[in-house]
Write a structure and sequence with these properties.
With 238 residues, this protein is mostly helical. 79% of the residues lie in helices and 0% in strands. The protein is globular and about 65 Å long. The chain starts with a helix and ends with a helix.
Length: 238
């Protein structure tokens, strides 16, 4: 199958799974709160509408990119509206809105990562050809571009965001060896970095800049993990 079509099919399935996972979490919150103190009607309406749109979407990277942009814009508008009304509500309603923020940001972050995945694959397609189909002859070039892309983005995390030395010490792996790892070993290493970050203690910090820095780092690492997941799906389909 043509690479762009293959990646498009994978991304659509992944986005559907993530949105459905969010809806399941919303359902779980409502089931555990029999008092019906939470109102997620606005989220259900938005997510259901976009799931239908996604299922019927033409499987092209450009169309998926447009869909993500429109979905993010809709999510951002809802988030702004909920924030504007936050201080006007009582304590009970504020708790409701905090849960709404949680579920909005969950999907928003997922979509942003998929947008970055599309950017990375578009770069690869520019190098190899828009209608390229991966085969035994061009497979080495494809994986070489994949590895280059991952290493480049990881170096960006190190240089512009930074990684706490204590996190690296606990990983028992030298960062310089990262480029020699297999894709799955890279993923395991990145997942270990995330596990070693104590997000609860970070949120208690008074240093806003540090909170933002570590948040950016975790977002970038999550993207790399998702990118590797998509590449692995591609590998299974070749």
């Amino acid at each position: 199958m043509i690479l762009s079509k293959l990646v498009s099919n994978i991304l659509v399935d992944e986005i559907i799974d993530d949105v459905n996972a969010c809806i399941k979490n919303i359902n779980l919150v409502q089931e555990l709160n029999e008092s019906n103190e939470y109102n997620f009607d606005s989220l259900y309406k938005m997510y259901d509408k976009n799931l239908i749109k996604l299922i019927n979407l033409e499987k092209e990277l450009s169309k998926i990119d447009e869909f993500i942009d429109e979905f993010i814009e809709e999510i951002s508008k809802l988030l702004i509206e909920e924030k504007q009304r936050f201080n006007e509500t009582n304590k009970k309603e504020q708790e409701n809105k905090k849960r709404i923020f949680e579920f909005i940001i969950f999907v928003q972050n997922k979509l942003m990562n998929y947008k970055k995945v599309i950017i990375s694959f578009n770069w690869i397609l520019d190098k190899m050809g828009l209608d390229i189909e991966i085969n035994k002859q061009n497979e080495p070039e494809f994986y070489s571009l994949i590895e280059f892309n991952i290493s480049k983005r990881f170096k960006t995390i190190r240089e512009h965001v930074g990684i706490n030395i204590s996190i690296l010490d606990s990983s028992d792996i030298l960062l310089e060896d990262f480029e020699t790892f297999s894709l799955n070993d890279k993923k395991k290493f990145l997942e270990k970095i995330l596990r070693d970050i104590n997000f609860d203690s970070i949120l208690e910090m008074n240093d806003i800049e540090e909170i933002i820095r570590i948040s950016k780092m975790s977002t970038s690492i999550n993207f790399l993990i998702k990118f590797i997941d998509v590449v692995n799906f591609v590998k299974k389909s070749i």
